[in-house]
Amino acid sequence: MSGTSPSAASLYSRVEKVIPAIEWPVFAADIDAILRLKRERNAVILAHNYQTPEIFHCVADIVGDSLALARKAMEVEAEAIVLAGVHFMAETAKLLNPEKTVLIPDMGAGCSLADSITPEDVRLMRQRYPGVPVVTYVNTSAAVKAESDICCTSGNAKAVVESLGVPRVIMLPDEYLAQNIAAQTDVEIIAWKGHCEVHERFTPADIRELREAHPGVTVLAHPECPPEVVAEADFAGSTAAMSDYVGREKPARVVLITECSMSDNVSVGYPDIEFIRPCNLCPHMKRITLGNIRAALEENRHAVTIDPDLAVRARLAVERMLAV
Ligand code: 13P
Ligand code: SF4
User: Fold this and answer.
1) Which compartments is it annotated to reside in (predicted)?
2) Which of 111, 115, 201, when mutated, tests ligand 2's pocket best, judged by the most ligand atoms within 8 Å of its CB?
């Protein structure tokens, strides 16, 4: 490991199974700079489970699914938060920490679900279904959250829907998540037509082929996958729920039907488990790199701002979710 600085070098053992030694020097200088900048700026890095291993395992202070990142964002004591994830996650962190600086290393880190719906669309849904509460997936803009009664994530969607004590809810914008939750509850769910561009590409035939090629494989799927895909899986849950499943059940062979970095990040902790790795990349998550995390800390960019009136309403929807 010549050419790496001591602190980055000491971190390499965490990722040696998923990052070839020849690639490590490329990361090491940025890792050391980020570790120093975090101390100097009193900053923490929150990273989603889809971040690449050198971010997830080497510079992040808090990792998790969308729900965990929202929960833990509330407990942060540092002055600045760098959100290694996509824009809606940074907005959620800012909603919960209006006084803190929240940075997103690349403003282009969006989400096809967040792009699928506008505040005007939500108002039209309310007109069409008067009195029906609106449950909004966190994968939306703060402006859409502000039009909603309560938010949910893939980790708590069923509990949120059922917490309202009503026979019917509008659930926006992920059609497949809505259908997958509808299959688990008596509450009638009115859905929108948004899809995750990563998970919508998986098909039931993919799962059947995997099972044929890898006998005995345990199939875990994210609930943003189409219901026909979830029906072929052994388990469906949020990114954290999939990771917990692996830790709890320790299947001999597993495939995670989700974004590619998940398997890299989870496999590091379970050297005896065989991870089969067909996956789809999220181009938005992959915009975040060590280089732009370093630049975010060096140049204080890109600070997330939210219109204060809108933030009050959006924050309420997120806080209601966190109270469930
Ligand atoms: P999780 O809340 O399960 O981490 O999912 C977030 C996401 O963007 C999945 O595509
Ligand atoms: Fe959005 Fe899908 Fe990417 Fe998650 S994986 S951030 S839902 S596009």
Assistant:
1) Cytoplasm
2) 111
